Amino acid sequence: MARILYIEDDREIGSWVEQDLKRRGYEVDWLTSGDGAVERVADADIVILDVMLPGLDGFTVGQRLKKASPQTPILLLSARTAVDDKLQGLQFADDYLTKPFHPDELAARIEVLLRRYGGKAESRRLRLGHLDVDPDGHLVVDRRTGEEIVLTGKQLQIFMYLAKHPNRILTKEQIYEAVWGEPYFEGDKTLHVHIRHLREKIEEDPGAPAIIETIRGIGYRVKA
Amino acid sequence: MSGRFRSLFGRLKLKHSLLNQYLLIILLAIVLVPVMFPLSITVVYLLMPPEDLGGEEIYQFGAEMEKMWHNEARQLDGASAEEIDARLIRLKEKYEEASMYWVDGQGRTRLRLPDTLDVPERWTPAFTVRFMKERYDGDPFTVVAFIGGKEEAGFMVFELPRSEMTTRGQQIWEKRDTVLIMTTLSVIVLFLFVSWIFFYRIRRRLLRLQQAMTKPSPHGIPSPTVVHKPDEIGKLEQAFNTMIGELEAGRRREREEERLRRSLIANLSHDLRTPLTAIRGHVYSLQEEPLSEKGRQSLALIDRKVGYLGQLIDNLMSYTLLAAGKYPYRPERTDMVRLLRTVCANWYPAFENEGFEIELELPERGFAWEVDPAWFERVMDNLLQNVLRHAKTGNYLAVRAFRQDGAGVIELEDRGPGMNGVSGDKGAGIGLTIVALMLKEMKLDWDIISGSGGTVIRIRGLIQI
C-alpha cells in the first residue's frame, strides 16, 4: 500500500481528497501546513503538495522536500495561473495538476508517478497483453510459454522507455532522444526500423500490433 | 586688493560658467598682444649677449669721439713726428676697432694704423676734396683734425665703421618688425593652444558623460556619474543623475506594482479555484450516491461547468497579464512540427475518449518559426480546447502542417457546427482573444473559415532558415 504525504491548507478540500484517496486504498498523511513535512517525507512514497500554503510558500516547501528526499515524486496541486507555475513550479515537481482537478485524474497521476518511481515495496511488473514486463530488471517474459523474449540492446531500451510511460503517447523525437541520447533528425528512419524488428519479436501479429500502438503522425504508445 | 579681485571672480562666477572662462581666455589674448610687444623687446634686450649687439660703450656717441680726436690733435701742437706716432699708437690701443693715420704738412701720409689701410701716399688737392665729400656723414664715421689746431702741421684722421657705433636699442629697433610678427604669432599660437586644451577637456568630459549614458548597468538603467565641476557640463551631469534617480524610482514603483498585480492575480485565482475544487469534490461524492438518471445528468453538467470555470479563470488571468504586457515572452527558433507533435500527443487521449476521428498530417521535414514555444502551446491548447468543447458533434479533428509559398502553415479542421452555430458550451471568446493577442505578438497571421459544416483555422508564418 502506497503512502501519500498530502499537504493542503484548505480543510474542506483536504478532508475530501483524504477520504477519496483512502477509499482508493492509499495510506494518507495529511498536513495543513508545510511544518513538519520534511521530517515525514522519508516515510512517503509520493507527495501531493498545494502551492498556496499559508506561511511557507508551496514552492519553498517543495524544494525542501525534493532536497531531503530526491527519490520521492512530488505532484503539485496548483491554484495559480499556469504562467508562474510553469516557470518555477516544475523545477522540483514531477507532475502538475491544476485546480479544480477531477479525483479520477488525481488518482491516475498518482498511479503513473508511483509506477515511474517504483513504489517502495511494490513489485514492478507490468502486464502488457501476453507479456510480463519488468522495467527494472529489463526482463520481458511471454506469459503463455513462460519464456524470456531476448531483445537487442536498442530494442530493449525502446520497449522499456515506452513501458515506463504506459498510456502516454511518446513522440518520435522523445523516444529517439531518450534512447540514443542525441538530437533526432527529421526523416530519420532508424527508430521506425527498430520498432518493426521489436514488433516482430513481441507482437502476436506484427501486422496488427496490439502492444505497441502507432499514433500516426505523432509517435507510439504502450497501453497498460 | 586680492579680496576685491576674488569678489570680481565671484561675480563672474568663473567656476560656474564655461562661457565666462572662455571669454576670459579671449580677453587675455586681446590684452596680451599690446602688452607682449614691449615685454618681448625688453626680454630680447636683456637676454641677447652684448657681443652680438656690437657697439661697445666708447663707440656709441660720434660727437664724443669727435671731441676726443680734436682734443688729442690740439695737444699734439708742436710735437715731433715720433711723438705723434707714439700718441696714435696709444690711442689705437684704446680704440681697437678704429683706424687712424696722419698726414703731414706736405701732404704725405705718415703712420697708418693698421698698416694695411688703403690710403694714398700723397694727398693731392683733388683727392682731399673727394675724400672730404665722401666722408661727410658717410661710412665709415670719419673725424679729421688739424694737429695742434694749425693747418701747416698736417692733420690726423680717425675712422670707425658705422656698424660699430650702433647701440643695442638701435639694433633691436631695426628688428622691430620681426619681433612684432613673432610676438603676435606666438600669442595666436598660445591662444589656439589654450583654446584647444579648453575644448579638448570639454569634449573629454562630454564623452565621459555619453559613455555613462549609453553603458547601462546590469539592471538596465545607466549608473549615475560623478559630478566634478559646478559648470554647465556639471549641471548636465547633475540633471542626468536626477533623471537616473527618477528612472530608478519609477522602475522600483513598477516592480512593486507588478508584484502586487501578480500576487493579486495569484490570490484571486486561488480564492476562485478553491471553492470550485470543493464543489467538484462534492459533485464527485454525490455521484457515488444512488441517483435518478436526471440527477446524474445534472451532476455531469455541474462537473463540466466547474471544469469550464477553471479554464475561464485561467484564461482571464492570462488575458490580464497578456494585455498588460506582463506575460513572459521568450521567442526562440522553434521546430514547429516537433512542437505540434508534442501538443498533439498531450491532447490525443482527450479526443480519443470523446470518440473523435483524428487525422494528423505532419510532414517529416518540418519548418521553424521564431516563437515562444510555451506561448504557441498555449495557443494550440486554447484552439484544441474549443474544438473539444464546441465541435463534439462533428467528431472529427485534423491537424496539418505544410509549406505553402515559402511560408509555414498550421491548419486545424473540425466538423462542428461552426463558430456561429449552436454548441453545448458558450464563451469561446476569451480563449480566442488570447489566441489572437499571442499570435499577433508572435507575428503570425491567422484566419478562421467557419460555416455550418465545420471550422478551419489557419496559422501562417515566415519560415526561419
From TrEMBL, chain A:
Q: Which UniProt keywords apply?
A: DNA-binding, Phosphoprotein, Transcription, Transcription regulation, Two-component regulatory system
DNA-binding region as annotated in the record: 123-224
| Source organism superkingdom | Bacteria
Q: Cite the InterPro entries for this sequence.
A: CheY-like_superfamily, OmpR/PhoB-type_DNA-bd, Sig_transdc_resp-reg_C-effctor, Sig_transdc_resp-reg_receiver, WalR-like, WH-like_DNA-bd_sf
Span of domain Response regulatory: 3-114
OmpR/PhoB-type domain: which residues? 123-224
Enumerate the Pfam families for this protein.
Response_reg, Trans_reg_C
Gene Ontology MF, one: DNA binding
Name positions with the PTM 4-aspartylphosphate.
Answer: 50
From the Swiss-Prot or TrEMBL record, give the protein name.
DNA-binding response regulator
Organism expressing this protein natively: Paenibacillus cisolokensis
From TrEMBL, chain B:
Q: Where is the HAMP domain?
A: 200-252
UniProt xrefs under InterPro entries: 2C_sensor_his_kinase (IPR050980), HAMP_dom (IPR003660), HATPase_C_sf (IPR036890), HATPase_dom (IPR003594), His_kinase_dom (IPR005467), HisK_dim/P_dom (IPR003661), HisK_dim/P_sf (IPR036097)
Which PROSITE patterns does its entry note?
HAMP, HIS_KIN
Task: Cite the entry's keywords alphabetically.
Answer: ATP-binding, Cell membrane, Kinase, Membrane, Nucleotide-binding, Phosphoprotein, Transferase, Transmembrane, Transmembrane helix, Two-component regulatory system
All copies of the Histidine kinase domain together span 267-465
Q: Which reaction does it catalyse?
A: ATP + protein L-histidine = ADP + protein N-phospho-L-histidine
Q: What is this protein called?
A: histidine kinase
